[in-house]
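Why do we care about 3D structure at all? Because function follows from shape, and shape follows, mostly, from sequence. That is the central idea of this module. The next example makes it concrete: a single protein chain, its amino acid sequence, and then its structure expressed as tokens.
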Amino acid sequence: MAHDYRSPDLGEAKAVELSQGTLNYWEKGQGRPIVFAHGWLANANLWRKLVPLLSSRFRCVVPDLPFGAHLRPLKPDTGLTPRECGALIADFLAALDLEDVTLVGNDSGGAYSQIATAMAPGRIGQLVLNACETPYDPFPPPAFAALKAAAQDEAVLGSALQVLRQREFRQSPQGFGHLIKHPVEDRVMESYALPILTDPGILRDAAKAMCSADQRPVTEAGDALIASFDKPVLFAWPAEDKFFPLESVRRYAAALKNASVALIDDAFSFTPEDQPEKLAALIAGAASGN
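And the structure:
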């Protein structure tokens, strides 16, 4: 099926058993580990252009997280509140026994990455945040509040998202058009948009994550990082982002002990799609300690 596509550039396909269920992931390269966390209605494909640029120097580990575009559902009783999503990422790092991780989070995956870092700071060597919520922003952003409302009922969410079957809608501002600036091949867009419409278990997982989205856990994690996290935090931010305010980023960076902001031109929120080379260079610098 088209929506099962994962780029061969991601590396070797693997799976790990967690208490929450089976998590698929892809791995390529050797060296310090870089772990990539996507957000809602995306999957490992989001990072397919970055892995070839980084895997000659780093061990790139790319999980499919359970946010609506993943390959297999988690256990039916698994909770996916923001704290539980953060714990899932932390548990994934622990299961693979990863240390000195450069954790890269995009979109809601960046919100969950902050929570994971606050939970397991000893495993994180550097945190790279790209176009995501900060402690000062609503989660989800106002433009996606309707998703949270619809997700209170799985059937309502599934019905509301049926328009994603239409290629024209996916490319529109109401679809992914304000998230991705430059064209993306159809099979990748289908891998983002269609799984939630074809598997009730994937819809169930996504609804859990979306309906429970809340700013408070992100704020609490941010407060914890401000208070005690002294490792590098890089905000690799698309200059044209339409959802995550740059003023919040600058405020957050100023409050953290060891943070910097780098702007990326000609990109929207899904920066790994729009400017993979620029984002990869920033991640490599962070992972190298530069």
